[in-house]
Amino acid sequence: MKRSEINAAIKEMETMIKKHGFEIPPFCNWTPQDWENKNHEYDEIRENMLGWDITDYGLNNFAKTGFSLITIRNGNQQLKDKYIKPYAEKLLMVRDGQHAPMHFHFYKMEDIINRGGGNILITVYNSTKDGEFADTDVKVTKDGRTYYVPAGTAVKLEPGESITIYPYMYHDFNVEPGSGDVLLGEVSMCNDDNTDNRFYEPIGRFPEIEEDEPAYRLLCNEYPQAK
Question: Reaction catalysed (predicted)?
Answer without folding.
Answer: D-lyxose = D-xylulose
